[in-house]
Structures are given as structure tokens and as C-alpha cells.
Write a structure and sequence with these properties.
The structure is a single chain. The chain has about 290 residues and is of the alpha+beta class. The chain has a single domain, classed as Clavaminate synthase-like (Double-stranded beta-helix, 4-Layer Sandwich), CATH 3.60.130.10. Helices cover about 20% and strands about 25% of the residues. A 7-stranded mixed sheet has the order 1-2-3-15-5-17-4, covered by helices on one side. Strands 14-6-16 form a 3-stranded antiparallel sheet. A 3-stranded antiparallel sheet has the order 10-7-13. A hairpin with a 2-residue loop joins strand 8 and strand 9. The protein starts with 9 loop residues before the first strand and ends in a 13-residue tail after the last strand.
Length: about 290
């Protein structure tokens, strides 16, 4: 659970309930009390932006360790270098794109709690990232659709995106995730509606990047239900969009958001460095955390 803190952050909200810029805070020198306030604001606002930061790879990892327990860079993809196995490099020169709506690493039994993304190389124009508020999206569903979604389970499968990479580029041996070396990407089941473990709020927990189908319904029914939820999740009123500048850092709660990186910068180079915080097993309405 988040704890109360006496520190008051200077927040510039980007919407009534979703997203905020944190002004005047240097993440490299922030106190424990300030980072506790950041952690609380992250649960409340779901995605936070910090302008004009001076973090390097070492500083990003150090920040992550102060906020939670870091995972490996990714279950399958290696770290940016040997000194930083926690950093996942999204490099457009090496197919490092994220131009599909997704929530990070939902194809594992325990997806990350949250992510911290730092702009390293930016294109002259384009390359914005958008986040969707899955809790606001759930709240605005009609009552009958909520009742249906509350009962459903979905399969998340990382093989479509990373199966070839694991087999061909890593020789079938990925990183250590939750104490075990990843040697295959077994599809996992998660509730379609996730209950946030800190607030108890419900959110839509399916995404086009990794969700393959709904359990216990026909293929046509699964496709129709998922299309409905995806369209609703990504309505403009559920979204904030960030235009990156040098030094920017974004943090988001992976338990209550999905995101999408625009691939609208042609052949220009874009590099982002991401770290993730260890999470828990998702649970749905009427169920308990495993």
C-alpha cells in the first residue's frame, strides 16, 4: 500500500484524473520523502512526466532501485550493455518500435508494476507517446458490459512479438524473470478486468500487443469483445499524449495504463531506455492476489 507523505509535489495535471507533469523536482537528487510522494502520485495519476532531467544509465537504475525492486531489462531481450542488465533499449535502428497499444510484459505471470522511460536520442519531429487510463475506461463502460467483462479471462502470449527473438537471437535462453531463466514463452491467463492492489479500482486489462483471445468463448465472440474493449480503452477522452524533449523521463503504473509510441519520424533515429519495477500477479473482481 502507498503511505501518506508530508511532501507536496508541484503537479501540473494533464487531465481531471489522469496524468501530470511534476515540476521542479530533480530525480537525481530527490530525497526519500520526495520519492515516496512520487510513488503515491504515480498510483493516483497513473503516468507522470519529469522535464529537463540529467539522468544517465547509472542514474536511471539508481532511481529505479529507490522506487522498487528492478526486474531484468525484459524476459527475452538482453540489457543495453553488461553494466546495465536492467535497461531495455528501444532503438529504432534495431526494430525498437512500440507502435501498437500495449501494457508492458503482460505475457508473463507477474507483469511489471511500473516502468520508467528516459529519452536518449530523439528525432527532430514525431515520436510522441500516448497513455490510456484503463481505470477511467472501465468506469465509463455501460453497466451490462462491465458485468460481462468482470467475468472474463484472457490469454496473453508473447510469442507473436518475441518468440522468434528468443529462439534465433538468444538461442532459446532469455533472462532471469521471477527467479527463473526464461527458455520459452508459455501463454498466461489474466483477468480481463484487473483490480488494482493498492486502490481496489478496476481497470481494463487487455491489450492488442499481447492479448490473443478470451477464454471460453468462440473465436468470433472473442474478437468482437476484444475489439469493443480496445476501441473503448483508446477513446480520446481516456488518453494523454507526451511530446518528448531532451532529458525527459516518464513513469507509469503498468497496472492501470496502456501506451503507444508513434512511429511517425521516418528514418530518423529514436532511442529510449526503459527499466521496470517487479510486480505482482494480476487478480480480478471477486478473486484474491495469487
Amino acid at each position: 500500500m502507498t503511505t501518506a507523505t508530508a511532501v507536496k509535489l508541484d503537479l501540473r495535471p494533464l487531465g481531471p484524473h489522469f496524468g501530470a507533469e511534476v515540476e521542479g523536482l530533480d530525480l537525481a537528487t530527490a530525497t526519500d520523502e520526495e520519492l515516496a510522494a512520487v510513488r503515491a502520485a504515480l498510483v493516483d495519476r497513473k503516468v507522470l512526466f519529469f522535464r529537463e532531467q540529467s539522468l544517465d544509465d547509472d542514474g536511471q537504475v539508481a532511481l529505479g532501485r529507490r522506487l522498487g525492486e528492478l526486474t531484468a531489462s525484459h524476459p527475452v531481450v538482453g540489457g543495453v550493455d553488461e553494466a546495465h542488465p536492467e535497461i531495455y533499449a528501444l532503438d529504432s535502428a534495431d526494430n525498437g518500435f512500440a507502435d501498437v497499444w500495449h501494457t508492458d510484459v503482460t505475457f508473463m505471470p507477474r507483469p511489471p508494476l511500473g516502468s520508467i522511460l528516459r529519452a536518449v536520442i530523439l528525432p527532430p519531429t514525431g515520436g510522441d507517446t500516448s497513455w490510456a487510463d484503463s481505470q477511467l475506461a472501465y468506469d465509463s463502460l455501460s453497466a451490462p458490459v462491465k458485468e460481462l467483462a468482470d467475468q472474463l479471462t484472457a490469454v496473453h502470449d508473447g510469442n507473436r512479438e518475441f518468440g522468434y527473438y528468443l529462439a534465433q537471437r538468444r538461442g532459446g535462453k532469455g533472462n532471469v524473470w521471477d527467479g527463473e531463466i526464461v527458455t520459452r514463452l508459455e501463454p498466461v491467463e489474466h483477468p480481463v478486468v484487473r483490480v488494482h492492489p493498492e486502490t481496489g479500482r478496476k481497470g481494463i486489462f487487455v491489450n492488442p500487443g499481447f492479448t490473443s483471445h478470451i477464454v471460453g468463448v468462440s473465436e468470433a465472440e472473442s474478437r468482437a469483445i476484444l475489439d469493443l474493449l480496445y476501441a473503448h480503452l483508446t477513446k480520446p477522452e481516456h488518453i494523454v499524449r507526451h511530446r518528448w524533449r531532451a532529458g525527459d523521463v516518464a513513469m507509469w503504473d503498468n497496472r492501470s495504463t496502456a501506451h503507444y509510441a508513434n512511429r511517425d519520424y521516418g528514418d530518423a533515429h529514436r532511442v529510449m531506455h526503459r527499466i521496470t519495477l517487479r510486480g505482482d500477479r494480476p487478480f480480478g473482481p471477486g478473486r484474491t492476489d495469487g
